[in-house]
Amino acid sequence: MTPPSPAWPFLPAPEPAPRLFVSHFDHQRFHAEAWQQAGFECPAPLASAVAKRHAEYLAGRCCAREGLRALGHADTPLAPQPDRQPQWPVQACGAITHSHGLAAAVVAPRRDWAGVGTDAEQWLDGARAERIAPAVLTPREHQALAAIAPEHRARCVTLAFSLKESLFKALYPLTGTRFYFRDAELDPQALLRLREPRGRCRLALLRPLSGAWPAGTHIEGHFAELAGRAMTFIGVSQGV
């Protein structure tokens, strides 16, 4: 596992900028001593898991710890809660992601950010994108996708998938409500912008998640590419 390093592939950077740290790992080289060497304890539910799960979990926690250190927080175990969400310090919020040997974590001060989400995905090929699109895209998104040149569609589906993953990570801790891909929608112009190397887009909730998050609420998302993978970020400012 490489030491976590700071990164921010999204433009423009929101202010104040959350901290994103990234690490690369090879699960085939994972060994049990890695937990102690990294200064973490292996959670009991993970004890019987395969090496890949150990490696990605540990790399993600190491990235999160570096993000918290960058904000001035003491080290914390970031233990999983019953819903498998990390236990963040009261003064911070964050999210962890991993994808095919890459782990990343975004961390932000809670005085400025109510919630943050990030997601990394390997780019889908055309056949797989076509298979999963009906589960990821709403009918309106699917109609907009049909107007996009075939060579760009897999990229757009990958980023739509990733943006909705980031949205869940940002909003679930705030609402306690689980929701699914087709419960949020990119407007047609936003879907077209996903062809660009990086940028911003808006998503709308299609169902209420709580009194503070009714259907029709709009949230801004960021997308980019990092280390050959699709990368997305969604942040909810305090007071939104």
TrEMBL record:
Cofactors named for this entry: Mg(2+)
Binding residue positions for Mg(2+): D119, A120, E121
A Pfam entry, by short name: ACPS
Pathways involved: Siderophore biosynthesis; enterobactin biosynthesis
Domain 4'-phosphopantetheinyl transferase positions: 115-190
GO cellular component, one term: plasma membrane
Name of the featured protein: Enterobactin synthase component D
Cited InterPro entries: 4-PPantetheinyl_Trfase_dom, 4-PPantetheinyl_Trfase_dom_sf, 4PPT_N, Enbac_synth_compD-like
Organism of origin: Kushneria sinocarnis
Keyword field contains Magnesium: yes
GO molecular function (one): magnesium ion binding
Endpoints of the signal sequence: none
Origin: domain of life: Bacteria
Catalysed reactions, as listed in the record: apo-[aryl-carrier protein] + CoA = holo-[aryl-carrier protein] + adenosine 3',5'-bisphosphate + H(+); apo-[peptidyl-carrier protein] + CoA = holo-[peptidyl-carrier protein] + adenosine 3',5'-bisphosphate + H(+)
Residue span, 4'-phosphopantetheinyl transferase N-terminal domain: 46-108
Transferase recorded as keyword: yes
Function: Involved in the biosynthesis of the siderophore enterobactin (enterochelin), which is a macrocyclic trimeric lactone of N-(2,3-dihydroxybenzoyl)-serine. The serine trilactone serves as a scaffolding for the three catechol functionalities that provide hexadentate coordination for the tightly ligated iron(2+) atoms.
Transmembrane portions of the chain: none
Family: Belongs to the P-Pant transferase superfamily. EntD family.
Positions bound to CoA: R53, R61, T97, H98, D119, E165, K169
Keywords, in A-Z order: Enterobactin biosynthesis, Magnesium, Metal-binding, Transferase
Subunit and partners: EntB, EntD, EntE, and EntF form a multienzyme complex called enterobactin synthase.
One Gene Ontology biological process: enterobactin biosynthetic process
